[in-house]
Design brief:
single chain, alpha+beta, Uridine Diphospho-n-acetylenolpyruvylglucosamine Reductase, domain 2, Uridine Diphospho-n-acetylenolpyruvylglucosamine Reductase, domain 1, 3 domains, 5-stranded antiparallel β-sheet, 4-stranded mixed β-sheet, 8 helices, globular
Length: 338
């Protein structure tokens, strides 16, 4: 068990923030994870679980142990003429898994191309994009109960998936370390191209009968054109969830703002793009100090080089307040504050 002390977390978060953790360990096996948990338990330390670092916002040094989950591996559990069941370890990069499936002709997650982060984080917030959510292909996951040391299995119902939500963000928060995720993918897939700009992008490319690879490439092109590369400028992708509001309230807002885009939400609610709301409040491209909303996508808050986590949080609060004042809608962060 390799445990380091006083480690800078700069390389482990996509916001590019330099905060230190008292202890740090990279783990590549279940045994190593259990050993680290024993270390934490004996010293009564707080534990911070890191994957790709693309969904956290550090605001201070961490007085505990940060664990980087590096579990690797992909395997076919079973398959037939219609479907293939694939298990992927938590430390695999999500986008690499998507490309692996697309190259093999297995459909279902191509719309989730280029989403940053690792496989283990995907079910925690039920990642989604362009009309597809993880829950649509989810079979099960295995997670280590931090208290008992027992590996438990969770099916779709047990995960209690919602919009950017799961059991692991609610009742099960901080109780488990996800080890692997199992998905059911289609060998004869039907593409989903009716959300966002996918159809328009395919049309511009002259593609009339798209394959899942065409859809994946279109999503990659769209995301690359709208979202800044964290390797070049610190960010965590979409900072806020798209709010879902009662349909009657959406209709009232439509009368005031006829150009407001809307999409069907869950449970009869109407989904409004948070990026559009933020842009209407004048935040797109606006810079305050060393942080701001990106010039091409208002939904993305960026670190222009020397921002602190506290400054980014304050910027997010200002954005939230202005959207609430203008539209009467509360937007919630996707990003987890540490």
């Amino acid at each position: 068990m390799n445990i380091q002390e006083n480690v800078d977390l700069l390389p482990y978060n996509t916001f590019g923030l330099s905060y230190f953790t008292k202890y740090f360990s990279e783990v590549s096996s279940l045994e190593e994870i259990k050993n680290v948990l024993n270390f934490v338990r004996e010293r009564k330390l707080d534990l911070l679980i890191l994957g790709g670092g693309s969904n956290i916002l550090l605001t201070k040094d961490f007085d505990g142990l940060a664990i980087k989950v590096c579990l690797q591996g992909k395997e076919i559990i079973e398959e037939n003429e219609e479907h293939v069941i694939v298990k992927a370890s938590a430390g695999e990069l999500w986008h690499s898994l998507v490309l692996f499936c697309v190259e093999n002709g297995w459909g279902g997650i191509e719309n989730l191309s280029l989403i940053p982060g690792c496989v283990g984080a995907a079910p925690m917030q039920n990642i989604g994009a362009y009309g597809v959510e993880l829950k649509d292909v989810f079979v099960s996951l295995e997670a280590l109960n931090k208290k008992t040391g027992v590996v438990e299995s969770f099916d779709r119902n047990a995960c209690d998936f919602g919009y950017r939500w799961s059991y692991f963000k609610g009742v099960g928060k901080d109780k488990y370390i996800i080890l692997n995720v199992t998905l059911s993918l289609a060998k004869k897939p039907t593409v989903n191209i009716h959300y966002g700009a996918i159809m328009e992008t395919l049309s511009l490319q002259g593609i009339t009968q798209p394959t899942i690879k065409d859809v994946s490439n279109a999503v990659i092109a769209i995301r690359s054109s709208k979202l800044p590369d964290p390797k070049k400028i610190g960010n965590a992708g979409s900072f806020f969830k798209n709010p879902e509001i009662p349909a009657n309230k959406a209709l009232q807002l439509k009368e005031i703002y006829p150009n407001m885009p809307t999409y069907p939400g869950q449970n009869g609610l109407t989904k409004i793009p948070a990026g559009w709301l933020i842009e209407q409040c004048g935040w797109k491209g606006k810079i305050i100090g060393q942080t701001g909303c990106h010039k091409d996508q208002a939904l993305v808050i960026v670190n222009y080089g020397h921002a602190t986590g506290v400054e980014i949080v304050e910027h997010a609060h200002q954005v939230q307040r202005s959207v609430k004042e203008k539209f009467g809608i509360e937007i919630e962060p996707e990003v987890n504050l540490v």
